[in-house]
Amino acid sequence: MSISIGNLRATASWNRTSRFWLAWPQATGHRDHDDAARDDSIALAQLLAVHAPVTMVATPMDVVQCSLQMPAGVMTLAADAGSSLLATQPVWLADAAGTVLAGVASDSLAGRDLAQAAGVQVVDLPAGWQGDLIETDGEGTAMVLARLAEGLVGGRVEAERLLAEKLGIMQVIWLNDPGAGRVPARYLAPGVVAVPGGHDANHPAFAALSANRDLLRAASDRVGRNFKVLDLPCPSRQRGCYSDCMVAGDLVVVPEFEESRDAQAFAQVVAALPDSRVIAFPATHLAGPGNGLGRTVLAQPKMN
């Protein structure tokens, strides 16, 4: 069932968390990798369960094995496309007071399945719009990937009107796509943004990422804060992303990729977030290419 959103607005990731959603790693045919990924998933579920309930999403074929390995209190959910269910990265919506979660915005079938599992309704978005293209601070400002406006007759003007109307986003910062197909930045706290850095001038993403970094450093959000931009390193051996931290309430989980730059990335985040609980967790076997833990774990905001 679809709903009319009225005064609803997109929430921030530092809202209180109602539930964490994780995807049970599917077999790749590489036993050592698969075993490590599943061990890390179990450990991550156990860590997060201290903060909020956890549901592990698994394919019907894997759900029995998954449920037998879960720590006490961690739920399992059978879904035909467990990983894609979470990959939709929906935009959670709350009422004007910021207290009641009212809907999930997604244009995909997986997003609708997730909305049903989460117990919320669906808000329709234009075709091709998905949460990975939008990163919001819950206060009316969002970083948005430039390609979100493609295909709209009115271009960015029309896109900004729809973002305001459907998601309560009143100020848009358009970012270039370095090739990942998602917003190449993440809010860690109000006014604090992490971006991937460390690329040399010959890297194909260098120009787009440099332009985005300069744009954010010169910008301010809707309430007048200048952005504090954390230029985090890139893993030297892995195709991961340190800036893709998982943020849920005051908890920030920095991905580790089993290399020396782990310590540098962690130290930068700790220094920038003195009021947050910052921890590190291995992401080598869990994160997809170009990702960290932010797009590996889905934090559902708390409903009242």
UniProtKB/TrEMBL annotation:
Lineage, broadest ranks: Bacteria, Pseudomonadati, Pseudomonadota, Alphaproteobacteria, Rhodospirillales
Keyword Thylakoid in record: no
Keywords: Hydrolase
Gene3D superfamilies: L-arginine/glycine Amidinotransferase, Chain A (3.75.10.10)
EC number: 3.5.3.12
EC main group: hydrolase
Any Pfam family hit: PAD_porph
Protein's UniProt keywords contain Hydrolase: yes
Protein's name according to its UniProt entry: Peptidyl-arginine deiminase
Gene Ontology molecular-function annotations: agmatine deiminase activity; protein-arginine deiminase activity
GO terms of biological process kind: putrescine biosynthetic process
